[in-house]
Amino acid sequence: MIKVSQLKKEFIQGQEKTQVLKGVDLYIEEGEFVAIMGPSGSGKSTLLQLLGGLDVPTNGEIQIDQHSINQMKEKERTIFRRKKLGFVFQNYQLLPNLTVEENIAFPLHADGKLTNENSKWIHELIDSVGLTGLNRKRANLLSGGQQQRVAIARALVNNPTVLLADEPTGNLDRARAEEILGLLSMFHRNHKQTIVMVTHDIFAAGFADRIILFRDGIIDQVISRKDGDYAKYLANFMA
Fold it and tell me: Where does the ABC transporter domain lie (predicted)?
């Protein structure tokens, strides 16, 4: 589903160049749930921005669903993002004065695809993320956990090929975080949703099929649930 080849990204400030990604090779299968971890400045968030077409690499190639997004023009990338990708952010990025239903429907409304059939899908999503009865409640009156549930439903409303999540539990306490991770796992399990999640939290990473550890702009280590040492690694990390 995702293939990254020799991906490099550098930022230039004045006369100074900072190389954030230093030749990353990565393959993510369809229906896989992958967690990306690493210290601040390791390149993990930059990678997510590039996968989402929100920035372009200095060198290398990104293929998502056999589309080379780094070779697209800006307008093409925008259309690709709307059709193929869903985003969940740490700070939710909801429209505060819109209702739960209106926030979830917003991507469809922006694309002119809001139909009666899609309205039914929106109501199904509201129920599936545990917000039954809150359709008409404004986003700014919701708790943090409820706002993140709305953000997940909004990210899924277009049936994205890939869901990208940037620290989706970073603003939540452990109980609310576990609820959100349970929701992501449910969509991954029941709908074979491909998920790429950046997180600092090893508890959150433990819900993934694979953990990819970044350090100094490269992949330092990959731990798979299929490996015998997965549980041992998590236990040692959390000790």
Answer: 2-235
